[in-house]
Specification:
The protein is α+β, with helices and mostly antiparallel strands. The protein has one domain. It has four helices and three strands; from the N terminus they run H-H-E-H-H-E-E. It has a three-stranded antiparallel sheet, sandwiched between helices. A hairpin with a 5-residue loop joins strand 2 and strand 3. Helix 1 packs across helix 2.
Length: 87
């Protein structure tokens, strides 16, 4: 089905510890399935991250861009986009 880019799946698999105490995926396939199950979202800009979190009910109005980037559910991708995984 490949709903997520390889970059997103690999970034989540490598950095899942920032969101979860225990690993939720041990392989690429498990990570991809997990992202699908929790309906993770890929976005291109920090503005889209802010909009998504705001629409999801998070209080992001007073947050700086740096604080958004530090949010545990936001994974910065090497290419410049973002993966948002709600825990």
């Amino acid at each position: 089905m490949n709903m997520y880019t390889k970059e997103s799946v690999e970034t989540f698999l490598k950095n899942q510890g920032r969101l979860y105490d225990e690993p939720v995926a041990d392989s690429y396939e498990e990570a991809e399935e997990f992202l699908e199950d929790c309906m993770a979202v890929e976005v291109k800009t920090l503005k889209e991250v802010r909009r998504y979190l705001d629409e999801a009910g998070a209080d992001v109005e007073g947050m700086s861009n740096e604080e958004l980037l530090e949010a545990c559910e936001v994974f910065a991708l090497p290419s410049g986009g973002f993966l948002i995984v709600e825990g």
